[in-house]
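Predicting holo structure, guanosine-5'-triphosphate bound.
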Amino acid sequence: MKSKLEEIYASLLEEIGENPEREGLIKTPHRAAEAMRFVTRGYRMNLEDIVNGAIFKADSDDMVIVRGIEFFSMCEHHLFPFFGHANIAYIPDGRIIGLSKLARITEMFARRLQVQERLTVQIAEAVQEILKPKGVGVVLQAKHLCMMARGVEKKSSDMVTSHVLGVFRTDRSTRMEFMNLLDLKEA
Ligand SMILES: Nc1nc2c(ncn2[C@@H]2O[C@H](COP(=O)(O)OP(=O)(O)OP(=O)(O)O)[C@@H](O)[C@H]2O)c(=O)[nH]1
Ligand SMILES: [Zn+2]
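Done. Tokens:
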């Protein structure tokens, strides 16, 4: 039986003037539905499950930065992808988090309909909530297909957003250390 999403994609094909019965398109509603479920799977994830207790005691209070975490998200205005890299830093307060978990947190929020600004804030707040560090800084750099492939058609533009919490907000030198350690070239 066809899922609701498959039926919607079949109607969409008809609506744009295509024949959903032609050979190349027979399985398209099924594939498109699967793809849409994949790029929105973040709605079916939660923070506790993905962090899975991977928080460890540590004495250090030196800045930890994970740079260049790839992400793919979906612009909530056009349902077009935007994609790029996330950079996440924190200052530990007795605890550190498993390295992969910062990428998983990014994935959980990226795989939803988003605007880049909110994605940035949600990642920062999730790290703050689960780890309770002295501060968190997040910088995202991304290219938006809605701006490259349609609309104003600016292919080389990208968007940089940041959100900082705790000492990254109150202490300028911490913030500067973070920004200086980033290597923002191409999204
Ligand atoms: N701030 C922000 N804007 C976004 C993001 N993704 C897409 N947009 C913008 O959302 C806006 C929607 O504008 P509208 O005028 O309602 O829609 P539109 O007619 O399709 O706009 P154009 O893209 O200018 O053709 C556009 O300016 C997009 O570039 C995002 O992550 N953050
Ligand atoms: Zn868009």
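Residues 75, 77, 115-117, 144, 146-147, 151-152 surround guanosine-5'-triphosphate (ligand 1) (CB under 6 Å).
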